[in-house]
User: Fold these one by one.
Assistant:
Number 1:
Amino acid sequence: MLNQSKQTANTETILNIPFFSGSISEVLNFIKKGGLLTAPSGPGLANDLPNSFEYRRSLERSDIVLADSGLLCLWSRFFSKKTLTRLSGLEFLRKFLHSIDFLNDSTFWVMPDYSQSHKNCAWLKREFGADIDQGYIYIAPQYSSNSFIKDHALLTKIEQKQPKYIFIQIGGGVQERLGIFLKENLSYKTSIICTGAALAFLSGCQVRIPNWVDFIYMGWLYRCISNPKVFLPRYFKAFRLLILLFKYREKSPIL
């Protein structure tokens, strides 16, 4: 079992989650040394955090947690003594992919299905010349909705390949729990990247979000306009996060 400690104390604790409060360049430097990076969304914090012990534990034990939620950061700015700097998973992943050497640094990709895997890999090849070998791609099975995740087939495959970077590209609320399973069971030090649908935005599997839209915290609105039936209900539920923030502040929201 790999025992990794927190790599930085540069955090602000909200809802018992140690959100990273530095810059993107600092995040890049830290995560390249190994560890679990998560970027929980507003809906994930609003719905999964209070109801799933394993999701909550995965964030609390992450080495770096990005403050990806614009709603969380706005609340901290106006109603808390702690001001979080928003670090979006989309911005981080874009810069991280440009900072690594695909020829010399091995990468491993956990994909949600074959269709998205094909589109994501085609985009990586166009953008970076990265020809991802099929042996370094894993199509995730249907994991449980909120309990502990074990995937020994994936664990065995990663142990055999021992990649430097692992990118988990399945849904938020699930990928964090898979990430903590890998962190606690891999025998070697690696970087585990959980950035939600960020790669799907970049590759076009989901609607592409312009940089300026992401910068002004409006990525959620862009998604709602692109597919209102799917995203309007999801983001409407995210406003529950405000109730949790006002009620619990620094404490863990266990319902």
Number 2:
Amino acid sequence: MPLITGVEEGSPAARAGLRAGQTLLTVNGHPVRDVLDYRFYTYDAVLTLELSDEDGAHRAAALRKGAGADLGLSFETCLMDGQRACENQCLFCFVDQLPPGLRRSLYFKDDDARLSFLHAAGRAGAPRRW
């Protein structure tokens, strides 16, 4: 569950009384598992958020904002959950072809298409860095 680590001063979230340390559970009744859920479900202008306080108590917060406007929340990680590893056994996988003895992080098979979707090079208006 996404842990809120910061609330921008004057933001819709601040006006609704949200604070760091709370966990975002749902937006308009939809569970929020990761950043894609968060961005999709918080697009609307009228939102009801279900939150869990530090002591485990649940509360609801209603807020209004411009459609597509940011709520002003920061989270523990940019993806709002853990890394996702590839479970395919492709014969051509470059990770499987790495020699032994390299740093451990190189052997992690990243299957996190969310990163490509959110930060893809070459999208309209974004500079390409090859």
Number 3:
Amino acid sequence: MYRQLRVGVVIPAFNETRAIAKTVATIPEFVDEVIVVDDCSSDDTSDRARVNPDVVVVRHAENRGVGAAIATGYRHALEAGLDVAVVMGGDGQMDPGDMPALLDPIAAGHADYVKGNRFLHPDVWREMPPARIVGNVILSAATRVTSGYKHVFDSQCGYTAIHRDALERIDLGAVWTRYGYPNDLLARLHAAGVRVADVAVRPIYGEHWKSGINFGTAFHPLPYVLLRSWGSRLVAESLRRS
């Protein structure tokens, strides 16, 4: 428990045999439940995630995408009665020491959804690959328009925390299931009137880091995802005002 909040950590994972055990083992002790969602890995990700008997491992029967894996984890968090669900990647690119910074605005009642912003951390220019910086800046600028949150940046950072009240205000089944998920989610949160805050988190890119993102899986569908989320937000907000 953290500041009277029951906290769960949702870890979407796909072929993360190299890093998943360390990721789970380094989660802070104040976390009440760890939920690993194995998105039909072809390796032993599920087995390696079970570093202790308390870890909950949910495995998809088929690969459904990172967004769908997170939605599965969110549903489990709601069913378990947790107050806040934190999302961490299974690849070791998120510092567990940053978790209190994500939780504090929710505990203080200032935000319902808190996302990491690596551009607020001084190491970003040294650690993040140049191509990722360029892509992130472009997508963040576009997402500011489509989501309606003019103050948020680093839209592709997946290190987030959300209160159960915010989760219950959106349709998890309608959120985009693959790359582009965070851009779509932000638009849906804005339509639901959810308060969002950015906090600084440490960028981590080890020497063995290799991105699973390529043009076909990410950048090709993103214009469609952004336009889709923009349109659905405008319609939802119009209906809410009428």
Number 4:
Amino acid sequence: MLEVRDLHVYYGEIHALKGISFDVSAGEIVTLLGNNGAGKTTTLKTLSGLLTPRRGDVRLDGASLLGAPPHGIVASGITHVPEGRRIFNRLTVVENLEMGAYIRSDRGVAPDMERVFGVFPRLKERRTQIAGTLSGGEQQMLAIGRALMAKPRLLLLDEPSMGLAPVLVEQIFETVQTINGQGVTVLLVEQNAAMALSIAMRGYVLETGRIALAGPAAELAGNPDVRRAYLGEA
């Protein structure tokens, strides 16, 4: 489905991604792990067209996405839930969800909104509430719901558990599994490595812009280096 090949991305003279390559197959949950500054968020921003690589290629179903604007990448089937949620604070819940469907002109928008409310019943209860007054967990639900309104085939999730209470973290990850079960492929960036590996099929570990390790999630979870660096074990 998604093929990333020899991707090099710079911030000015800073070489942020140094030739990373990886794949995401249809139907998978794949996680990118790594410490702050490893290049995880840069990778997702490049995949969604917010950053332009200096070298390399990104292909979706064999078609290159290089040079495509962000709205064109959304139209191709990729949506991005950014770190920090980035909802429209002054709009209502419903208006935020409608913004997620801005590229669509079909008649399925209203039924899809009801499906989002089925995944996130709390959003339905707060459908007329101003988004900026929602709790952190509700805002994360809204950010994911907004991305789903574009009917993605591949969902990019950047730190969905950030700043949330443990009970809400579990709920968000259960929801990610539900979304995946409905046919949406997921590429997940997450600091909570244990939780990410518990729901992912495969994973990649980034270190200073390079992929240091890759493999099945269970294999990475059992790797001593991963356990020491990301799972808090001595």
